Amino acid sequence: MDQTLSEFGNVFVFFLLGVVFVAGGYLTARMLRPSRPNPVKTSTYECGEEAVGSAWVKFNIRFYVVALIFIIFDVEVVFLFPWATVFRQLGSFALVEALVFAGILILGLVYAWVKGDLDWVRPTPSVPKMPEMPASKSSSQRD
To answer: In whole angstroms, what is the distance from residue 102 CA to residue 110 CA?
Structure first.
């Protein structure tokens, strides 16, 4: 029990020293830097150009979908890398497990592909127009 508390105590002291070091750096910088604000310094800097429009721009949802799919497959690599390093010791059961894992992710990719989430430009659905019916004869023309 004492050994565990001692290890957590070391981690806590290390964390506390890190916080003190960062806070000390901020306080030292605040005391030493000159403070001369003016409108040019407080304006928005955008690659040397004047800022145009609002910063609250709506991004296309396709960016998020592509990023999410990338993260999913990036995490897959993170999970498969340790498996690949000890593949020979694990045997055929581990191979089957890895293939099932990769298969599930490939099914997810196929689903996203079929659904159209990977298409950058989606075709707009078109509604067929109803053909115009010829004008019916009025009752006076029938007589």
So the answer is: 12
> Regarding the domain with residue range 57-119, which homologous superfamily does it belong to in the CATH classification?
NADH:ubiquinone/plastoquinone oxidoreductase, chain 3 (1.20.58.1610)
Write out pLDDT tens, residues 108-120: 889 888 888 777 7
Distance of alpha carbon 109 from alpha carbon 115, whole angstroms: 10
Alpha carbons 132 and 1: distance in angstroms, whole number: 87
pTM over 0.70: no
Could you give the dihedral angle defined by the CA atoms of residues 6, 8, 9 and 11, in that order, rounded to the nearest 10 degrees? 130
> pLDDT of 14-63, one tens digit each?
999 999 999 999 999 999 988 888 887 777 776 767 767 776 777 777 78
Give Cα 42 to chain centroid, integer Å: 31
Burial (CB < 10 A; 0-12, 13-18, 19+), residue 42, is: exposed
Work out the angle between the directed axes of helices 61-85 and 92-115 (0-180°, nearest 10). 170
Residue 105 near residue 73, CB atoms below 8 Å? yes
